[in-house]
Records
---
Amino acid sequence: MVNAFFVFCGCVDQASVAVVEKWGRFVRLAEPGLHFFNPFAGECVAGSLTTRVQSLDVRVETKTKDNVFVQLICTIQYRVVKEHADDAFYELQNPQQQIQAYVFDVVRAIVPRMNLDDLFEQKNNVAKSVLEELEKVMADYGYSIEHILMVDIIPDAAVRKAMNEINAAQRLQLASVYKGEAEKILLVKKAEAEAEAKYLSGVGIAKQRQAITDGLRENILNFSHSVSGTSAKEVMDLIMVTQYFDTIKELGDGSKNTTVFIPHGPGHVKDISEQIRDGMMQASSSNV
C-alpha cells in the first residue's frame, strides 16, 4: 500500500521570515530553511519580510526660533523584529511612509523652539527625541529602530553666506588684534634696546672721559716733577698740541675716514688750545 501525500516544499532565504496562512488566516512564521506546505489543506505563503537593517533618508524642512528656514536630513536605521514579523506584515501597509510622518511631526515640534546656532550644537538631542518617539510607536507594529543620525543641517543659501561673512569678519578682527600686539611688542623691545644702548654708550663715554682725565692729570704731574720750572698750564698746552697732531695723523692714515678741512698752522694751534682751555674754565665755573 502506497500513501500519496500532495504537498509542496519551499525554501526561505537567510535573514528573511515567511508568513504562512491557512485558508487566508495566519498560522505561523517560517524561518530560513526548507519548509513543506500542503496547498490542499489551504496552506500557502502569504509573503516574506527581510530582517536585515534597512535605511531610510528623510528630508525635513522647518523653521527655527529666529525665523531661519532649514532643511534637516535624517537617516533612520530600522529592522523587522523576527518574533513580531506578523505584526509588521499585517499592521502597516507602508512602514517607510509611517516612519517619515513621525519624523516630520517630532522635528517640526522641536526645531521651532531652538535658534539656528543652538540647532547646530544640539542636533544630537533632536535625533534622540526622534528616536524615543519612533521606538514607542513602531514597536507596536513589529519594527525596531536601531539608530537615527542627523546627517546634515542646511540653512537657506543667503543665511549660509551671511554666516560665512560673519565668521570671516571675526577672524580678520582677531588677526588685526594679534598683528597690533606683535607691532606693539616690537616697538617696545626696540625702544628698550635703544635705551639700553644709549645707557651703555653714556657709561662708556663717561668712563672714557674719566680715563682721559686721569691720564692727563698723571702726565701733568709727571712732567712737572721731571722738568723743573714748568707750570701746569704749559704742560696742558703741550699735551693738547700733541693730541691735535695725533688726530691729524689718524685722519690722514684712515682711508675710510671723512676728510675734515680746518685751519692749520702754529697760530691756529694756539687759538685751539686757548678755546679748549676757556671752555673748560667756563664749565668749571658754572658747576661751582
---
Amino acid sequence: MASDLVTKAKEAFIDDHFELALHLYSQAIQLNPKHAELYADRAQANIKLNNLTEAVADANKAIELDPSMSKAYLRKATACMKLEEYQTAKSALETGAALAPAESRFSKLIKECEERIAEETGDLSMQMPEALAKNDVPAKEIELDKDQPNLEIEAAPPKPAYRHEFYQKPEEVVVTIFAKGIPHDCVKVDYGEQTLSVAINAPGKEAYHFQPRLFAKIIPEKCRYDVLSTKVEIRLAKSEPIHWTSLEFSREVAITQRVNVSSVSASQRPSYPSSKPQRVDWDKIEAQVKEEEKDEKLDGDAALNKFFRDIYKDADEDTRRAMQKSFVESNGTVLSTNWKEVGAKKVEGSPPDGMEMKKWEY
C-alpha cells in the first residue's frame, strides 16, 4: 500500500502536481513513519511549494532516521538558503559532501553560501588591515586647527537588534524575526485585530520591541508563534484572503485585491519583502533544483508504469483495446498489445513465480 502511494507521489511530482505529491507522501509516512526516504522526498515537495520551514523539519527527520542520507542534507540546505540561513545551510552541505564526495552540487552550493555569509558580515577581518595601511598617518603630523569651528557629528541611528521579514499565503502571513538562541520564555507575542506586538528580553542582550500596525485585519485566536533555534516564526491568520502589499499599514495604499484561493497555483512563489535588501538569486536556485530533478531518474515500478503509459499514448486503437482487455481480464497480471490474440478469447491471469491467483469474495 505504501509503495503504491510512493509511486503515485513520484509521478505527481514529475508532472509538477506538487500539492498532490505532498498529500501522497504524507499518507505514505502515516503508514511507514520510520522511512527516512519518505521524509526527504516530502521535503522536496515542500520546497517546491515554498513551505520552507516544513521542508527543513522533514529533512531533519530524515537525517534523524538515516544520518548517512546525503540527499536529506541537500534538501535541508536548499530550504535554509531560501530562508537566508546560510550558516546552517553550509553546515548541512559540508556534512552531505563528506557522505557523497562525488556529488558536485555540494561544493557549488557551499561556495555560494560562503559568498552570502561574506556579504552579510562585510568580511571585516580582510578589509581592516588594508584600510589601516592606507590611513596610517604618524601622530606628530596631525595638528588641530584652532580656527576650525567645532563640528558636531550626527550619530547614525542604531540598528535594530534583530532583522525581520515576511511572506504570505492566501490564508496567512508568516513573519520571521531572526534571533538566535533566544529562550522561549524570553519572547512575548500579542495579537490585536490589526496589531502585532513582539517583545524579546533575553539576558545579556538588548531588549527588542516590534509593534507594527498591520496591513489588514487578522484573527487573533487563530494566530500562533514558534521560537526556534535561529528565529521566532509568527503565523498571522488573515481575516480576509487579500494580498498584503506590505506588512505594515499605509494610508497610501488605496486598493487591495482579493485573492481567489482556488485559483492560486501551487507552483507560484510567494514574495519575501524584508527589512534587509534581498540578494538571493532565486532563478539560480530554481535551476539547481531542476537539475536535481533530472538527476533523480525513475526506477522500479515507477519507471515501468511510465513506459506502459507512453506505449498506450502512442498506440493505435486495436493496441489500446488489447491492453485494456488483457489487463482487466487477467486482474492486472497480463498486458498484451496483440488484439488478434486477446480479442478472440478471455485472458487468463498469470501470477508471478511463487504466487497464486485467488478469487476475493465480497
---
Amino acid sequence: MGSSELHQNDANCVWVDGPIIVGAGPSGLATSACLTQHGVPSLILEKSDYLASLWQLRTYDRLKLHLPKQFCELPLLGFPHNFPKYPNKDQFISYLESYAGHFSIQPRFNQAVQSADYDHILGFWRVKTQDSEYISRWLIAATGENAEPVIPDIPGINKFNGSVVHTSSYKSGSEFKNQRVLVIGCGNSGMEVSLDLCRYNAIPHMVVRNTVHVLPREMFGFSTFGIAMALIKWFPLWLVDKFLLLVANFILGNTDQLGLRRPKTGPIELKNVTGKTPVLDVGALSQIKSGEIKVMEGVKEITGNGAKFMDGQEKEIDSIILATGYKSNVPTWLKGCDFFNKDGMPKTPFPNGWKAEKGLYTVGFTRRGLLGTASDAVKIARDIAQQWRPNNSCSNSHVILLKET
C-alpha cells in the first residue's frame, strides 16, 4: 500500500493521508514497508524515474556489497536464499525491486522536491515539486548521506586536458585501457576503481590524502564486520579494535610501509565518532604491493597533462577519477529547519537522529549503512503508527481547510 490515499484539492495541490517520504532508495522503501505493516499509508516522492536511482545510475559495474547479505537486508523481507554471500549490484537492485513489489510500494517518479516547509499556522508540511504541492502531517527525509557527489576544488584542475570523472559516472576500466589514471581518494571506491583499472591494463596512481584503516574483508573465513559485531556484544570497543588491527597486520602486513598510514584511533571507534568507514580489501592491496597500483601523496596542483604532488614528484596523467565520496543534499530542499547541520546530517548523533520535531523524521543518515537504515525505519514506523490511530479520520476536514488557503 505504498501509494497512499490522496485527496486532490485542485490541479496541483495534494493532501497525503500518511507521511510523505522523500527518496525511493533503500531508506525510503524500508520505511514505507514498515509503515504498511502498521496499516499506515505513505507516499514516496522520487526525483528520477527509477527505484534506488543511485544504485542504478551512479555505481560501477563490478560493485558488490562490502558486507555479507545478512547485514544489508531491509526489514520484513530478506535476500533470496540463492544469492551469494556478497550480492553484486544487479542482484541488490533486483532485491529492491522485488521488495517494492512485495509491499506494493509505488513511488511517484519524476517528482524532484524543490522545497519542504513546515506551515506553523496549519501544522502541516508543504512539499513542493516542479509541478505539485503535497501536504501532510509527517515528512520523512530518506535522501540519505550519498545524494550528491563531492567535487573537491583542486588547484589547476580546469587546465587539465584529459577527462575528469567522479566515481558516480565511472562504469568500468574498459574506458581507460592502457591509460595513466590519477585516482583521487583511497576509500572503498578509490581502492576498487584502482583495482578495476588494473584489469584493463591501465596504470592507476592512487592519491592518499589522509590516514586510512585497511582491513581484510574476511578473517579466518568469516566476515570481518560480522566478527566485530559479535565481539562488541562481549568486549569493550578498544579491545575489539586492538584485536582487529592485530589480525589485519597478520593477514595484510604493515600498511604504513605501503603509504597507507593508519589513524591513531581504532577502526570501529573512528567509524562511530566520524562516520569514516574502514576500507575492506578485496584485492587492491596485493596490487599495491606488486606496484601495479602506485600510491601517491596529496596533489599540489594539476597541470595541462599531469599532476604535481606534495612530495615534489611530477607525473604525466591521461585521465583523473575523483573517488571523493558523496554528501547529503537536505540543505538544498528542507527549509527553516535547524535539525540538520550545514553538511545535511542530523545534529543529534546515532541512535537518536531519526526523529526531529513537528512530524519530521530522517532515515539513512546514521553512517552505519543498511543496518542503520533498517533500525531507523522500524523506529519511525512505530512512532508514526502511534500518532496515526487516533488521527486517521480527520483528513477530509483538512482538505476543506486547505482549499481556502
